[in-house]
Amino acid sequence: MTRAKICGITRPEDALLAERLGAWAVGFILVPGTKRYRPPEHARRISEQLGPFICRVGVFQDSPPEAVLAHMAQAKLQVVQFHGFEPPAWAEEVRRHYPLIKAFKLSGPADAAMLEQALTYPCDALMLDGVNPGSGQGYPLAWLEPFLGHPRLIVAGGLNPENLPSVLALQPYAVDVSSGVEESPGVKDGQKVRSFLDVVSRSAQL
Questions:
Q1: Helices (DSSP H) in 21-160: which residue ranges?
Q2: Of 47, 99, 113, which Cα lies nearest the Cα of 74?
Q3: So where does this one cross the membrane (predicted)?
Q4: Residues whose CB is less than 8 angstroms from the CB of residue 43 and which lie 6 or more positions away in sequence, other chains included
Q5: What is the CATH architecture assignment of 3-205?
Q6: How far apart, in whole angstroms, are the C-alpha atoms of residue 116 and residue 121?
Q7: CA quadruple 42, 43, 44, 48: dihedral positive or negative?
Q8: What is the residue extent of each domain of the chain?
Q9: Which residues contact 196 (CB under 8 A, 6 or more apart)?
Q10: What integer pLDDT is reported at residue 151 of this predicted model?
Q11: Are 56 and 25 in contact (CB under 8 A)?
């Protein structure tokens, strides 16, 4: 069964809708200067409104472990997502406290060096994203093929309700969406969220 994460949450109503419609996780962008950034205390206010069976993910980019751990505690989140060029030693430190998702950006087919780096990185799940995360820009599905043997592969980058079925046919561990279900950066479109999660749910029943 493929799980779904709704990322770029900035409003409590969007988080609660995602939870009600069956999302497995919601993501909070803790990268200052980005369109969907909100400070940790804002994420905490939303997190505290959610029930116990939906995962709260904090997304970081090139923040050292001490900052990540402080912000995770402040925001009351449960899983860390690295989305930059964090060295493996940072991952190992964070994983002493939280499960970790590591994202790699695909700008073309993976060469041997990139493939080895991604498949040996110390993490609990591997995410593949587009070269400009949050932009809605995707990539050819053929670029995913070398990674499909990973037991916890998360596919992100340009997903929306229309192109989701072809990704689900690959049976990844999870899919991740942000701009593909938005009205504007950080503001989710309820009908698009519903349609996205309906597609995920239907695929699980096949």
A1: 40-47, 65-75, 88-94, 112-120
A2: 47
A3: none
A4: 9, 28, 30, 56, 58, 75, 76, 77
A5: Alpha-Beta Barrel (3.20)
A6: 8
A7: positive
A8: 3-205
A9: 4, 6, 159, 160, 161, 164, 177, 180, 181
A10: 94
A11: yes
Taking 90 as the threshold, does the pLDDT of residue 135 lie above it? no
Output the pLDDT for position 132. 81
Please list, residue by residue across 67-98, b when 16 or more beta carbons sit within 10 angstroms of its beta carbon and e when fewer do.
ebbebbeebbbebbbbbeebeeebbebbeeeb
The first and second tokens of residue 28, run together, are 């909070």
Q: List, by residue number, the catalytic residues.
A: 7, 129
Q: Please give the structure tokens belonging to residue 54.
A: 């939906």
CB-based burial label for 33 (10 Å; 0-12, 13-18, 19+) = exposed
């904090």: which residue's tokens? 58
| Length of the chain in terms of residues written | 206
Q: Examine the pLDDT at 176 and tell me if it is beyond 70.
A: yes
User: Amino acid identity, residue 65?
Assistant: P
Across 107-165, where does the E strand assignment appear?
125-130, 153-155
